[in-house]
Amino acid sequence: MKTAVNLKNINNLAIPATISGIAEPILSITDTAIVGNIPVDGLESLAAAGIVGSFLSMLIWVLGQTRSAISAIISQYLGAGKIHEVKDLPAQAIFFNILLSLFLLLSTIFIVEDIFRLFEASGKILEYCVSYYSIRVWGFPLTLFTFAVFGIFRGLQNTYYPMLIAIIGAVLNIVLDFIFVYGIEGMLPAMYLEGAAWASLISQGVMAILVFFLLRAKTDISLKLRFPLNKELKRLVFMSLNLFVRALALNAALIIAVREATALGDRFIGAHTIAINLWLFSAFFIDGYGAAGNSMGGKLLGEKDYNGLWTLAKKIITYGMIVSLVLMLVGFIFYYPLGRIFSNEEIVLQTFYGVFFIMILGLPMNTLAFVFDGLFKGLGEMKYLRNVLLSATFLGFVPTLYLGKYFGLGFYAIWIAFVVWMAIRGGALVFKFRRKFRPLLQNQ
């Protein structure tokens, strides 16, 4: 039975995926908003949360690519009616991924000060970075495990259960943030920045436990490691490696941006922390239709339904653009109140307001990139995604940033570079999709 490409089926995947997706930036946004209003050293705490958050996002995005590879393979086998052939693949993939994450965790924990000095952190900000990271880093393997299981559900055309887990994690994190950061009079002392770290760690642990039991209860896929290795493990590894390199290029841009903002001064890294959290929030919001493209695209490819695939691409980009226009409207209407959620430092807010409009105007570019990015992951086009990110970062983002810096644009150069970066990514994916699948459509 062919997959019906209609608004109902797309939204059945996209809406839960959107809610699930924004849970990750909500964790960071919650920390940023609450930490930015700490009565003692609020500016330094905000800067440290931004720096550590950027580094942890890099680690998660680099190693979390197994999620997309698992989703692509499972959805393609589901479409081909051969899902039984890959039931032992997820356990093998997750096992090796967690081992790698533990290795990296133990490697970074001993050189943590040197890592954050690369971000131009020093003095009290460096001290806060080390204490915050030393707690939050233990949630890294838990998040990778949760993401991998989310990928299994997505491949099975189910984004509802990941949404439930993500909501529970986000709500729990917000509650614990208020309790641990500000304390409870007479019961629990205020822990400030370290309290935010503990809130995130506990929330990540609860999400990992819940998703484990949900997978066991709702699917036939076992997480018990079995041998011999599945025949698709090699393809999954190569897909993951291409996405690994891609994620390195992606995070190179994010890290360079953080480093340049930090070098400009405390108010700039504070403003950049607010802006990048809102950028990531909008990214995951738009990415819901990319997730629908990921799940349905892989299944349609497995069915060899190229007409359906072409229709899917047109529909998800249309719906994604509508979402981005709504976000733009919200951004302009609540231009000033949004900033005040995150900080009470006037100098930080004025710096943020100076670049926020650039981020808002770039949202349609983000939509093209994120929606087609999700679709291409479902199609297994990881090598092309890798090449696009390398080109966009080192031929687009970096030259734009340093040319802007040379001509005295300062903080503006960072956000202009982001717009150029996303325009290259989106344009290249649209071009490739049309060139590859239009001939197949005509021949079907």
From TrEMBL:
Question: Record's Pfam families?
Answer: MatE (PF01554)
Q: Which PANTHER family match?
A: FMN_FAD EXPORTER YEEO-RELATED (PTHR43298:SF2), MULTIDRUG RESISTANCE PROTEIN NORM-RELATED (PTHR43298)
Family matches, as CDD domains: MATE_DinF_like
Membrane-crossing ranges are 46-64, 94-112, 132-153, 160-184, 196-215, 236-257, 269-289, 316-338, 350-372, 384-403, 409-431
State the compartments where it is located.
Cell membrane
Q: Does the keyword Cell membrane apply?
A: yes
Keywords on this record?
Antiport, Cell membrane, Ion transport, Membrane, Transmembrane, Transmembrane helix, Transport
Entry membrane topology: Multi-pass membrane protein
What protein family does this chain belong to? Belongs to the multi antimicrobial extrusion (MATE) (TC 2.A.66.1) family.
User: Has the keyword Transport been applied to this entry?
Assistant: yes
- Which organism is this protein's natural source? Croceitalea marina
The protein's name is Multidrug-efflux transporter
